[in-house]
Recover the amino acids of this structure.
């Protein structure tokens, strides 16, 4: 009993010396935090089948760009198609700007040495932009089309250019809205 009380007293002294509180230990990591921002951005997408978000972070852990997949500014969501099948001009592919491209275009900073958080592995067109912008690391949540040509080309380009990529496997954020 005496030992227990002694430990409790010492703990009390420690708490007082450290301002009365101990550090929270279940806080989210930087990776989860920035992926959470990308995840939230994806909720802005009007695409019925694929909502993608992106968040660019500089080496000082400051957010310098965010984006989601959508049509260009001034191009009506009500007049352009979101469908995936059919003649090219009747599909979204002719018109949509991907999340990564929007995030890169939205930035006001030099992206050299930055990293980009994306909810879906980047396609080859976005890989080109990522490389050219100076982004050095891609952190992605899902890789839905690993065997598609656009993903193979994307990996090929990033490998050649020295842009690294890794999947975020420990992600506990759930973005809900009503
Ligand atoms: Zn893309």
């Amino acid at each position: 009993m005496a030992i227990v009380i002694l430990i409790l007293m010492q703990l009390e002294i420690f708490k007082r010396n450290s301002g009365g509180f101990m550090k929270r230990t279940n806080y989210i990591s930087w990776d989860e935090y920035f992926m959470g921002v990308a995840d939230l951005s994806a909720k802005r997408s009007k695409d019925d089948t694929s909502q993608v978000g992106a968040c660019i972070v500089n080496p000082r852990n400051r957010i310098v760009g965010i984006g989601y997949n959508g049509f260009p500014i001034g191009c009506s969501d009500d007049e352009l198609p979101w469908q995936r099948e059919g003649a090219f001009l009747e599909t979204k592919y002719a018109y949509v700007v991907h999340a990564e491209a929007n995030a890169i275009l939205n930035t006001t900073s030099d992206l050299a040495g930055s990293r980009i958080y994306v909810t879906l592995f980047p396609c080859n067109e976005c890989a080109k932009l990522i490389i050219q912008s100076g982004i050095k690391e891609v952190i992605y949540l899902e890789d839905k089309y690993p065997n598609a040509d656009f993903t193979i080309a994307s990996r090929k380009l990033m490998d050649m250019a020295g842009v690294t990529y890794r999947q975020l496997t420990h992600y506990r954020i759930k973005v809900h809205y009503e």
Q: What stands out?
A: The first strand starts at residue 53 and ends at 57. The CA atoms of residues 42 and 53 lie 4 Å apart. The mean pLDDT is 91.
